[in-house]
Amino acid sequence: MSALWLGLLVALPTVMSLAVAATGRWPNLREGISVATAIALFLGVASFIGPVTDGLRPTLTLFEILPGLGLTFTLEPIGLLFALVASSLWSLTTVYAAGYMRGNNEHAQTRFFVCFAISISAAIGIAFSGNLLTLFLFYEMLTLSTYPLVTHHGDVESRNSGRVYLGILLTTSIGFFLPAIVVTYLLTGSITFTDGGLMSGAGLGVVGAAVLYALFLYGTGKAALMPFHRWLPAAMVAPTPVSALLHAVAVVKAGVFIVLKLTVYVFGVDFLAHSGAAEPMMWIAAITILAASLIAMTRDNLKARLAYSTVSQLSYIVLGATMASSLGILGGSMHIAMHAFAKITLFFCAGAIYTASHRKNVSDLDGLGYAMPVTFSAFFIASLSLIGIPPMGGTWSKWYLMEGAASSGHTVLICVLAISSLLNIVYLLEIPTRAFFHNPRPDTPRHWAEAPWACVIPLSITAAACILWFIYPLPFLELLAPWAPR
C-alpha cells in the first residue's frame, strides 16, 4: 500500500463532513453518506493489516517546520489496532445515532454528524501519528471537535459540563503534555516515535524519567487518570451516541492509546523496566481502577455508573503500559478493542432504554427486561466481557494483564485486577438482574417495547462481537506479535 493513503484516510471523514453539511435537508442521504464513508474508511485501514503484520511501517511526511519537526504519519501495530477499532465502530455508531436522534427528536442533527465525522478524522490522525508534534495537534483537534457534541443540548447543565470537559482537557494538554514534548526534544534531539524508545541514551535519571513520564500521562487527560477524570462523568449530559463516541470509539481510546504509544516508542519498555520510572504511575492506575469502581457502585443514574466504569476500565490499559512488560503491553492493547466493543454495547443499551422507556436510573429498570429482552440480553453479554468471564472477549485482555503483572514481579496487581472484577459484578450485573428478576413497575409495558431497529441492530452486533473475540482472538495476537508470547 502507498503511504499516501495514510494522509487520504485521515482526511476522508473531514472531507465527508462537508457533504453531510450540504445534505442536511435530506436526513436519509446525509446518514447514508456517513455510513458509506465509515465503511470506506474501515476498508482503507484494514488494507494495511497485511503489510504492518509483515513488519512494514508505512510513513508519510506532509511538511517539515525544521528537520524532524513536521506533520508525519507512520503506521505501526498499536496504531493500526486503534484505527481499526475507531473505523469499524464508526459505521455502527452512525446507524445507532440515526435511530436515537430521530427517536428522541433531537435538534441540530446535521451539526451532530458533522462534528462526529471531524472527531473520527482526529482519532485516525492520532492513530497514524509518527511523532509527538503530529500527535499533539490531532489530540487538540479531537478535544475541540467533540466539545460541540458534549454541549449538544445547549442548556445550562450542558454548558457547565462543556466547560469542565474543555477546561480539564486543554489545561492538562497545554500545561503538562506540551512541556513534556519540549523536554523530550531538548533531551534527545528528536520527537519521532522510535522502536525501543528515545530515552535509553538520554542520560535521564530515575527521578527525572518518572517526572517526565508522569507529565506525559497526566498530560493525556483523555486517559482519565485520577484526579483528572472529572471531565468524563461531566460529559454524560450529551446524547447517548456521543457517550458511545467518548467512551468506546474515539476520545478515551485515544487517551489510553497515547499512553501505550508513549511507553513503547518514546520511553521504551526496557528502559522503564530497568529504571522503574513507571512505577509511581502504575500505582496511580491501580488506585484509579479500584476507586472508580467503588464510586460506580454508588451511582443510580445508568450513564453515570457506566462513566465511572469507563474511568476504571481505562486504567486497566494504563496499568498494562506501566507494568513495563511485553505481556502488559499485549494485555493493554487487547483491552482497547475488548473494552471498546463491550462498553459501546452498554451505552447503546442505555440509549435504547431511554429511547423506548425514558428511564435513566438503575432503580427504575425493574421488570423492564420482559419488554426489552434483546437490549438487556446484550447488556448482560457486554457486562460479562468487561468482568472477564468466558466465553467473552474481555477474558483474554484480563488474562494477559494478569500474566504481565506476574512476569514483571508485581503480583499485588493481580489482586487489584481480581478485586476490580468482583466490583464489576456488583455494579454491572445489578442492571440485567433488576430487568429480568424483579417485579415490574406498574407503568412497565406488558408487551414488546424495544427501541427502533436502528438502535437494536447495532447493539446486537457489538454484543455478538464480544463473544466472537473470545472464540477468535488470533487476529489481535498476529497484529500485536512483537508483544505476544512466543
TrEMBL record:
Keyword Ligase: no
Domain NADH:quinone oxidoreductase/Mrp antiporter transmembrane: 129-423
Top-rank taxon: Bacteria
Main subcellular localisation: membrane
Transmembrane portions of the chain: 33-53, 65-90, 110-139, 164-187, 199-219, 231-260, 280-298, 310-330, 336-356, 368-389, 409-430, 451-472
Subcellular location: Endomembrane system; Membrane
Keywords assigned: Membrane, Transmembrane, Transmembrane helix
Lipid bilayer topology: Multi-pass membrane protein
UniProt protein name: Monovalent cation/H+ antiporter subunit D family protein
Any Pfam family hit: Proton_antipo_M
